[in-house]
Amino acid sequence: MQSRRVGVAHEQLASGLLRNLVSSLLRLYPASADGEAIVLATPAPERHEFGLLLSALLAAMQGWRVVNLGADLPAHEIAQAVRLTNRGFCC
What we know:
By secondary structure, the chain is an alpha+beta fold. Helix content is 48%, strand content 18%. Strands 1-2 form a two-stranded parallel ribbon. α1 runs parallel beside α2.
């Protein structure tokens, strides 16, 4: 009898599909040149990114210029990206 248990491989497959779907939806909302910028990231060691991706989608739908740095970044790198974004030098 086959096990009906959901394993790590199933979780990775579902995660990849969801990541691709949200990324595709983000492309429907191109960044506005005059839109306010929002920097999104999760600090180290947080590796979960679905909240981040959904936040990026919601922000893009509202006209924000989304700078999505991704998950698991050192805090000083996030702060530097925010400074550069506010100066118009980033992303």
